[in-house]
Amino acid sequence: MPASEALNAWEALTAVRAQSPVVHNITNYVVMNTTANALLALGASPVMAHAEEEMEDMVGISAALVLNIGTLSREWVKAMFLAAEHATRRGIPIVLDPVGAGATRYRTGTVRDFLAAFRPAIIRGNASEIMAIRGAGAGTKGVDSLDASQDAVSAARAIYEAHGSVVCISGATDYIIGDRSLRIHNGHPLMTRVTGLGCTASALCGAFAAITPDPVLAAAQAMAVMGVCGEIAAAKADGPGTLQLHFLDALHRLSEADIKGRLRAEVA
Ligand SMILES: Nc1ncnc2c1ncn2[C@@H]1O[C@H](COP(=O)(O)OP(=O)(O)O)[C@@H](O)[C@H]1O
Ligand SMILES: Cc1ncsc1CCOP(=O)(O)O
Ligand SMILES: [Mg+2]
Q1: Which of 54, 57, 93, 116 is close enough to 209 for a disulfide, judged by CB 3.0 to 4.6 Å?
Q2: Residue-wise pLDDT tens digits, 77-112
Q3: 55 is in an annotated binding site
Q4: All residues with CB under 5 Å from ion ligand 3
Q5: What is the pLDDT of residues 182-237, one digit of tens each?
Q6: Ligand nearest to the Cα of 196, by number
Q7: What is the CATH number of the domain that holds 212?
Q8: What is the torsional sign of CA 186, 203, 15, 20?
Q9: Which Pfam family, an example, fits this chain (predicted)?
Q10: What is the gyration radius of the CA atoms in the chain, in angstroms?
């Protein structure tokens, strides 16, 4: 069976739409609205919450936890660690987006401290962020990658071996590295001109991880949907502004034929 069919992306999307899992996000100020809307358009039920006082209750009603360090500060990091403790105890999947790891010591150090304490089901970042976790590469240009996704594959393998977290490197080709490896060739370069689409990929990883127990498959399903919707949106867009709008509509309208006709996935 071709890798694209084996991803079961359509079946998983149907399950997300039917079950509408609650996805708890502790994310950054830049993308809160963007990723909440993307999760809603997908069919999931997003909630953004970061007060320590409500972490136990919020994790208690969630099916996945998405942690994103895009605008971190001491209080938010404390909330993330607390939420991860509750999620681990409840056995719900954690997705970590190491936004800007490699740009500052605070970001890189926080990600490493987190990985020393917890095991996210999925870590989704761009190539520079993933390499920075292993001390590889020349750093990250703020939140943007200086490297191509294939350059981060050996760092991703090392992270998987050291921590057991599946690593998803986004870029022109998306790599999913775990107990097996997949590549997804969908998407469009215009997606890099809209802030928050990487964070959206991580949020979608959370929605699919809520439905699909195998984290390699869950990450691949999320990246498949991202890539196919990115292509559909780019074909209709005049630039980044309309890409963002068409992307949300594409998530909402995504059909089995869209996925079957466009998805280009292979075993890496
Ligand atoms: N050059 C590209 N061609 C096609 N798709 C891309 C390209 N670069 C990024 N993407 C897609 O854009 C989305 C965001 O990825 P990326 O830009 O790597 O994240 P980040 O914003 O965290 O740096 C992903 O779905 C990825 O597949
Ligand atoms: C611009 C910016 N600055 C801090 S977080 C953030 C958003 C990054 O989002 P993404 O990595 O999805 O483009
Ligand atoms: Mg990012």
Answers
A1: 93
A2: 999 999 999 999 999 999 999 999 999 999 999 999
A3: no
A4: 99, 198
A5: 999 999 999 999 999 999 999 999 999 999 999 999 999 999 999 999 999 999 99
A6: 2
A7: 3.40.1190.20
A8: negative
A9: HK
A10: 17
Q: Which helix or strand (DSSP H or E) is residue 23 part of? A: strand 22-26
pLDDT-based confidence at 180, cuts 50/70/90?
A: very high
Torsion angle of the four alpha carbons 96, 97, 100, 105, in this order, in degrees rounded to the nearest 10: 0
Distance 175 CA to ligand 3 centre (A): 15
Q: Is 124 annotated as a binding residue?
A: yes
pLDDT at 2: 65
> Is the separation of the CB atoms in 214 and 46 below 8 Å?
no
Mean pLDDT throughout 51-60? 98
Residue type at position 177: I
Q: How large is the ipTM?
A: 0.99
Q: Which of 25, 27, 28, 141 to mutate to test the pocket of ligand 2 (most atoms within 8 A of CB)?
A: 28
pLDDT score of 1 more than 80: no
- Domains identified in the chain, total number: 1
CA distance 199 to 264: 22
149 is in an annotated binding site: no
pTM of the model: 0.98
Token pair listed for 37: 């809307």
pLDDT for residue 216: 98
Q: Which domain holds residue 63?
A: 3-267
- Protein residue with its CA nearest to atom 7 in ligand 1: 172
Q: Where are the beta strands (DSSP E) in 115-258?
A: 122-126, 166-170, 174-177, 181-184
